[in-house]
Fold this sequence. Notes:
Nucleoside Triphosphate Pyrophosphohydrolase, 7 strands
Amino acid sequence: APAPPPARHLFSDPAEVEALRGNLLAWYDRCKRDLPWRALAATELDADRRGYAVWVSEIMLQQTQVATVIDYYNRWMQKWPTLQALAQASLEEVNELWAGLGYYSRGKRLQEAARKVVSELAGRMPRTAEDLQRLLPGVGRYTAGAIASISYGQATGVVDGNVIRVLCRLRCIGANSSSPAVIDWLWDMANVLVDRSRPGDFNQALMELGATVCVPKAPLCGECPVKQHCQAWRRKLFGKSPPVPDIEDCGVGDCPLCPPATEPWDSSLGVTNFPRKAAKKPPRAMRMATCVLERRGCHGAPEYLIVQRPSSGLLAGLWEFPSLPLAQDLQEGKEREELADHLQAWTGHPVAAKGLRFIGEVIHIFSHIHQTHVVYSLHLDGDVTLDPALSPSRWVTEDEFHASAVSTAMKKV
């Protein structure tokens, strides 16, 4: 087994740990944000409803900012206030409410897990992080720890992006913070630090600190309630690592948590030297031909054809305008021909490539895909019967389109 990191990277002093807990919790009590899931979890007496309220918030907050989540969360809890209500909903309803929040598989897995709790667990939420992760699809290590500590008082730590940043700065951890070995050490630290009497509040305080004070750029160190415990802050003040007995054990290439020798401390960055991550792969480019097919509806208002995406993969189950992927180096004339052939399969009528009107391009960026929609429009005269053997499709008005489960990219189109 690899040698453990030197003590200066760990929280090995019980007195320091106790002081850090007290300072952080006192700050949280004074400064925490007023968020709807916190209010609901604090007032809800039924343990399962409390767990459900926290669970929904944690799933929505994955990869999504708090400001964006609040409205979605309030509408979700108003529509499905209990696990039982969510279990009875359709996936179409879930997708419609989730539309625009991104990472759509989260909503699908949340509903699948709710149905499992109702049908297989007698409607009772698992109470420990271990059982939550083992029994509920879509619940990983972090989400399980958050639900168990906040809802059920289990003294277990949590590690998310905010906690990683705070811990790496507190202990000058400069190794790649996304590597499995470093993540394991951070989980060990979080479990050492968590307050045994207020685990849920402590975990929320640690995350709140990372979200509002110990931010990625321009952190507010002067307002930090635990700066006296922060080695990165002390190093910024004194220009070197703090003098601790085992300082010579670090920085010589064999410490699993020190920065690599090729990436020394940059004094101009201060505490933002930490954390360090491996360089991200650039998103892959993808081009899509997308056509807005329009017809005159029975009441005179224009209607547009939308089709449903497959039940798995990117944007699973969402509705979109007919689209197909394009080769990166395809000429415009060939793009039109391929799109015309694709549309002919939908409409059952010949579609002339020259009849497609070019509208423009829409760019939408996912975390791993840089997607360009080459947008065309086509007006259809008369009634069009769609092939029922193809993917589900329907004609919608503009209002119906915006009420459907469509992605942000399609709204841009």
